[in-house]
Design goal:
The chain has helices spanning 4-17, 60-72, 94-108, and strands at 41-47, 84-88, 115-121, 124-126, 132-134. The chain is globular, with a radius of gyration of 18 Å. The protein is built from three helices and five strands. It is α/β, with parallel strands linked by helices and 149 residues long. Strand 4 (124-126) and strand 5 form a beta hairpin. It has one domain.
Length: 149
């Protein structure tokens, strides 16, 4: 019985050690901070290293986390967490981008002078200088036009 608690703690640490708790999709969008006067800065930060059907990448998710952390730092503009929409790995799916990100963006009510940064780290390609795309986590070759951004 005296070994039960240390064993339980060890099991819990092993179970949760591999989980990326920062990769959770944001909850319901909070409205624009009306206590701030003047233009505001917002950011979409998306990093995908783990794909279901294609070769994974090594550092795209970490690069996105570093960019998010930079945006929160004084050198990056000291953005509040509410002004950054972050999608990492499995959270970077079509629903979270097409629906939840748009809801978040609408709730922020961007105004003249506001800035929106979009940081996308992951697989992508360019068709020409005007057309490019980035792959979401569940991209499949036959549906590449409908599963990319």
């Amino acid at each position: 019985m005296r070994f039960f608690l240390p064993i339980l703690i060890t099991i819990l640490l092993l179970v949760y050690a591999g989980k990326d708790l920062t990769a959770q999709a944001p909850g319901p969008p909070r409205p624009r901070d009306t206590t701030v006067t003047g233009p505001q800065t917002f950011a979409l930060v998306m990093g995908i290293s783990k794909y279901k059907f294609i070769r994974p990448l090594n550092f795209a998710d970490k690069d996105a986390e570093m960019f998010r952390d930079f945006m929160k730092s004084p050198a990056g503009g000291a953005l509040k967490e509410d002004n950054i929409y972050t999608l990492l790995n499995d959270q970077a799916n079509e629903t979270n981008f097409q629906i939840k990100f748009k809801q978040w963006l609408k709730a922020k009510k961007l105004q003249k002078g506001d800035r929106l940064f979009m940081y996308l780290a992951g697989h992508g390609d360019a068709i020409d200088e005007d057309q490019f795309f980035t792959l979401l986590t569940t991209v499949i070759r036959p549906a590449i036009r409908t599963t990319t951004l």
